[in-house]
Amino acid sequence: MVTVVDNIAGKPQQAARPRHPEKQKNAETPMQRKPAWIRVKAPGSPVFRETQDVVRSNKLVTVCEEAGCPNIGECWSKKHASFMILGDTCTRACAFCNVRTGMPGPVDENEPKGIGEAVAAMGLDHVVITSVDRDDLDDGGATHFAKVIKAIRDRSPTTTVEVLTPDFLRKDGALEIVVDAKPDVFNHNMETVPSNYLKVRPGARYFHSIRLLQRAKELDPTIFTKSGIMVGLGEERNEVLQLMDDLRSADVDFLTIGQYLQPTRKHHPVIDYVTPEAFKAYEQIAYAKGFLKVSASPLTRSSHHAGDDFRDLKAARLARDGMIAKT
């Protein structure tokens, strides 16, 4: 059960309000030194600044900034951005996540228009739309997702749209609203293996998330489905392989696997840094299990190289369907 507690309403806003009030009493854990294969260059190219200006001028929120993504310099320098809708405050308090938590404000009805204009201004071929969890809304924000997809289609009809949604737990009909809006890719991240859910993703339910992905494909067999996990949270290798099987049973097309990075000392610690060789092994196994596309590396994130990955995904489906037709 998800419980939302409003500790803000009726109280004066304070500039120093904690980003993660629920984690303030957590014991601090040491942050391990990152290995060489994790380190990235600081952002600062002219194109990065240009992308930043478009985001700021349209008063948009990006998961690139809110989640502290290590790939922001590379992506923004290529005019790639993932927009986070429905505000910057999440009603959940996952142990791994750096997005602000608390009681969100009202939904910005002008946001779909702003995102549509930003996508057109940036000339994006492919765009990723994600959101915070909004357990306070009757539909979990599904209608807002649909409005954003429509606004993008109206302004940039050739842009392909990928949505990375919350789980819509106990929000009957929400998934149908999003799928009816016809995104090209429906993504919902499992995040970790089931044995970690109570401590890493306590507001979610593993098999509900599996069923959400399966149901999306049932509602629209033409849609591409996608999910991602982090490793380095104490999972066992056989648990990762079982998760792959569960996703394939749900007919998921695309799997991403990346290294968990601890945002602060109050967040869940990194248990281990998985080597590039181990990621390569996971990738090979996932392809053998039948995924059309797999991205597995220390710096892999759900939205990293999303446009290029979508082209690969389409090509892989065409090749598979052609082989099936010949047999």
Q: How would the global form be characterised? A: globular
Strand sequence of the main sheet, in spatial order?
A: 1-4-5-6-7-8-9
User: Mean pLDDT, nearest integer?
Assistant: 87
Helix content: 25-40%
Q: pLDDT under 50 segments (min length 5)? A: 1-15
Radius of gyration: 19 Å
Strand content: 5-15%
Which structural class do you get from the secondary structure elements? alpha/beta
Which helices and strands, and how do they pair?
Elements: H1 46-57, H2 63-66, H3 72-77, E1 82-85, E2 89-90, E3 100-101, H4 111-122, E4 126-131, H5 142-155, E5 160-164, H6 174-180, E6 185-187, H7 197-200, H8 206-219, E7 224-231, H9 237-249, E8 254-259, H10 276-288, E9 293-296, H11 306-326
Parallel strand pairs: 1-4, 2-3, 4-5, 5-6, 6-7, 7-8, 8-9
Helix pairs in contact: 4-5, 5-6, 6-8
Describe the structure.
This protein has 327 residues and is an alpha/beta fold. It contains eleven helices and nine strands. Strands 1-4-5-6-7-8-9 form a seven-stranded parallel sheet, sandwiched between helices. α6 packs parallel to α8 (206-219). The radius of gyration is 19 Å and the shape is globular. Mean pLDDT is 87; it is low at 1-15.
